[in-house]
Design a protein that fits this description.
Length: 207
C-alpha cells in the first residue's frame, strides 16, 4: 500500500530573520571598513605634520566655511532621521519627501565645498606642499563618500516601496540612512582635526 508523501512547505529567504537584517548588517561592514580608511588618513595627516621640514608654514583653512558645511550635513541627517521615523509609522510619502530634501541638502554641501576649494586654492594646492596634498586627499575622499551617499539615497527614493514585506517596510530606507549618517559623522572629525585645531594652534602661536 503506497502512501502519499506531502512535501515540506517551502520557506522563502525573505521570511528568514537573517535575511531581514542582511542589508543593515552589510552596511555596518561597509561603515567599519570605510571608517578605518579615514582613521588611516587622519593618522597620515598627523604623521606628516610632525615633520615641519615637509610641512610648509601656511594659513589655517577657513573654519567658518567648514562649520557652515557641518551645519548643512547635520541638518540633513536630522531631516533624514525624521523621515526614518515617518516610514516606520507607515507614512511613506512623508519619509520620501524627507529623503529628497536630504538629497538637495547634500548637493548644496557639494556646491559649497566647491566654493571652499576655490577660496583655499588661492593659498594652498594639492601640489604646493605635503599639507596641501593630505588636506585635499582627505576632503575629496569625503566628498566622494558624499556622492556615493547621494546615489544610495536617490536609489532608495526611486523605489516604489521601501520593502517587500509589511514586517520590515523601512529596511532599505534605514540602510541608506545609516551610510548618510556615517558620512556626516566623518565630517565632524574632519572639521575638528583639519579646521578647528589648526586655527586654535595658529591663534596661540601668533599670540
Amino acid at each position: 500500500m503506497s502512501t502519499v508523501q506531502i512535501p515540506p512547505p517551502k520557506v522563502g529567504l525573505a521570511t528568514l530573520p537573517l535575511d531581514q537584517k542582511r542589508g543593515v548588517n552589510c552596511m555596518w561592514c561597509v561603515i567599519a571598513t570605510e571608517g578605518w580608511l579615514f582613521v588611516a588618513m587622519f593618522g597620515a595627516y598627523y604623521y606628516l605634520g610632525s615633520n615641519k621640514d615637509r610641512w610648509a608654514d601656511h594659513t589655517a583653512p577657513k573654519w567658518w566655511l567648514a562649520i557652515l558645511l557641518l551645519i548643512i550635513l547635520l541638518s540633513s541627517s536630522a531631516v533624514l532621521m525624521w523621515g526614518e521615523h515617518q516610514v516606520e509609522k507607515g507614512r511613506e510619502m512623508a519619509g520620501r519627501l524627507a529623503l529628497w530634501v536630504t538629497v538637495v541638502m547634500g548637493l548644496g554641501f557639494l556646491a559649497l565645498q566647491g566654493f571652499e576649494y576655490s577660496v583655499e586654492w588661492k593659498e594652498v594646492t594639492p601640489y604646493s606642499d605635503t599639507y596641501g596634498s593630505i588636506f585635499y586627499s582627505i576632503t575629496t575622499l569625503h566628498a566622494a563618500h558624499v556622492i556615493a551617499g547621494l546615489f544610495i539615497l536617490v536609489y532608495v527614493g526611486l523605489l516604489p516601496r521601501y520593502g517587500d514585506t509589511t514586517r520590515t517596510p523601512h529596511k532599505p530606507y534605514k540602510t541608506g540612512a545609516m551610510y548618510w549618517h556615517f558620512v556626516d559623522a566623518v565630517w565632524v572629525f574632519i572639521v575638528v582635526f583639519l579646521y578647528i585645531i589648526p586655527n586654535i594652534q595658529r591663534y596661540l602661536h601668533v599670540h
